[in-house]
Design goal:
Blueprint (H helix, E strand, L loop, with lengths): L2 E4 L1 H4 L9 H9 L3 E4 H13 L3 H18 L3 E2 L3 H16 L6 H13 L1 E4 L3 H4 L6 E2 L6
Helix pairs in contact: 3-4, 5-6
Length: 139
């Protein structure tokens, strides 16, 4: 059974008032799931940019709990992930496509850890030779 690396858009779905039922079903029935340290960066950055102190406080508590829940399942970015991401960004740039640093590092983590990348943004990761799954498209 494969492991699953959750893209930022998947885990942040949990912060919505009415998250997509298919995403909730996926998260409740699938394991093991992992997060990239890059996803934590994206969540933290988004939280810090919020103007509403009330919303920021609520999301801070959620993020603190998320970090506690995932613990050792938060994967760091190491040398192999960084080199893979650089190669992919170079190749995609040569073809006229922009691959963001965050997406490249998240994809590199999935590749190096042999995980399926779970994301709504399949197009962002196409052509990178990694396994993808969109829980919004599941029945």
């Amino acid at each position: 059974m494969p492991g699953w690396l959750l893209d930022t858009n998947v885990i942040s779905e949990l912060t919505k008032t009415q998250p997509a039922p298919s995403v909730i079903d996926f998260l409740n029935t699938t394991e093991p799931t992992f997060l990239s340290a890059i996803t934590l960066h994206e969540l933290e950055f988004g939280l810090l940019r919020l103007k509403s102190e009330q919303k920021r406080s609520r999301l801070r508590a959620w993020l603190t709990d998320l970090e506690r829940q995932y613990g050792e399942r938060i994967l760091p970015v190491g040398r192999a992930e960084a080199k893979w991401a650089a190669r992919q960004r170079s190749v995609t740039a040569d073809s006229g496509r922009v691959l963001s640093l965050a997406d490249a590092l998240i994809a590199g983590t999935a590749i190096q850890q042999d995980l399926v990348l779970v994301t709504r943004n399949l197009k962002d990761f196409q052509g990178l030779n990694l396994s993808l799954f969109d829980p919004w498209q599941s029945p």
